[in-house]
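Hello,

Following up on my earlier ticket. Below are the two sequence lines again, exactly as submitted.
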Amino acid sequence: SQQGEEDPQALSIQEGENATMNCSYKTSINNLQWYRQNSGRGLVHLILIRSNEREKHSGRLRVTLDTSKKSSSLLITASRAADTASYFCATDPTRLTFGEGTQLTVNP
Amino acid sequence: DAGITQSPRHKVTETGTPVTLRCHQTENHRYMYWYRQDPGHGLRLIHYSYGVKDTDKGEVSDGYSVSRSKTEDFLLTLESATSSQTSVYFCAISARDSLNTEAFFGQGTRLTVV
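Thanks for your patience. The regenerated structure is below:
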C-alpha cells in the first residue's frame, strides 16, 4: 500500500509558534497531498507537491518532499487557534487512502 | 465549494436492516469515494469508483456494497447493518486529470446502528 503515515499523532503548541508534521510512505509516488480536517467536517485539500519538486509554499504552509527518504513534512508558520485540526497526507491518488493523521492543537 | 451532497446527514437504524447512503455531485468528476471514520481515527476507504459501473474495493469493504449507475450518484449500501458499522461516513470526489488531482469531501453522514 502507498498509504502515508503521519506523525506525530498529536501536537500541541502556542499561537504564533510553528508546527511541523511528517508523512512517511512506502513506495514510489507521483505526488503527495496534504489535507486538513476540522472536527466533524470533511477533509479540505491544502497543497499538492509533485515527485519532481522538493519544496512548495502556499501562504503560511511550506511542504517539503524527500523521495530518497520517502517522507514529506508540512510546516505551518505563525500558527493560529484556527489551525487547530487534524492533518492527513495522501500518496495514492487512485485509491486516495489516508493514515491516522496528526491532531494539531494551537492554544491561544 | 465543490458541488457534493450527502444524504441523509443523520440516520438511526436497527441492526439487521439494509441502509443506503447517497452521494451526489454536480462537478462531473470521474472518481468518487466512500470512507468511514471512527472516533479518534483517520478515514478508512470502503469502496471507490472510477467511472459509471466501475467500482473497486477499499480497505474495509466487508458488509458494504456500492453502485454507480450515473456519473453524479454513488450509493453505499449496508446490506445488513451491524453495531460495528456505527460511524461517520464521508463521500469524496476527484477529477484526477492532469490539472486537477485534489479531492473534495462531503459533509458526512452520521449513522447509528442500534
